[in-house]
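@channel anyone free to eyeball this complex?
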Amino acid sequence: MCSYIVETAKVTGSAKGAEGWMRVDTATVYYDHPFHAPLDHALGIDLTCEADGGRERVALELSAESARALVDAILAALASGEVEHGHAHEQGHQHERA
Amino acid sequence: MRYEGQIAETVAYRGDGGDLIEAYAARPLGAGPFPGMVIIHHMPGWDDWTKEVVRKFAHNGIAAIGPHLFSRYGAGSPDDIAARARADGGVPDDQVVADAAAAAAWLRNHPLANGKVGVIGFCSGGRHAWLAACRAPDAFDALVDCWGGNVIVDDPAHLNPKRPVAPIDYTESLRAPLLGLFGNEDRNPSPDQVNRTEAVLKQLGKSYEFHRYDNAGHGFFAVTRPNYRVEAANDGWQKVFAFLARTLSA
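replying in thread with the prediction:
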């Protein structure tokens, strides 16, 4: 089906797209027919910077299984990384620890 | 030896509100006259497959136009533009109906037109095609709905200012004969929803034919996806062109 179900998250960081690095402030997440991936449905993530007009995006189309694996990997990396480097709210001190 | 040829190209026409809509159009070479079809793309956008379908209709003797319903989101690759439209919650039904009706007028005004124009849509485009044929009944002489989801809306929470009315509620206005193709393993529309859609058509005395395929789910025409079902797709395309030969002949 084509769904209109879209989740959005405010994010802080950068992504590398066709024009090089850019700052991003929004992640649009959906589960629908992909444009490119050879799947009937895919988990899509579009990273954009709405503050800069949102014209450029970095896009992902992942199978549901691999999207869940990515979520697990992100959470695992955060859990171990934050033990090693300190929590996100302590990021101002990261350079001292590195 | 029989000569075959077609011309396929980007065109532009004025849609809802006089906005310039880009479109992909194809027609057979020759003197015509040719019937016309408006091809409505699905939510992921004005993709290569949509343009292949436009050319397929021309190959089968029909002038076709596939409007880019997300044109108003500006220039860029169709997938990026579709992403903008998606993040914006899709395009309003009123706008789609007007854009589709204007595309039908573009076909009907072509010097090679035979005066008959139909509309076909796939997935969310099937829903849009249904809306267009019901809400612009003077514009369309045939309707083909390929697994259009959300024609029946079971959860009122899915209605919103852009999509305020379930398409099934406009069915009384439908004048064009309808061909519907569905996979019995589809979940949107589910077999139960197709049953209820058919019940409404029967109750209203509409001219329709439904073909429902076992071992097929959603989007079984899509050759680049695992859901492609060769037998259902081959039979479905035959049904489409047989239906249009009957309904769009001058």
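from a first look: Chain B has a mean pLDDT of 96.
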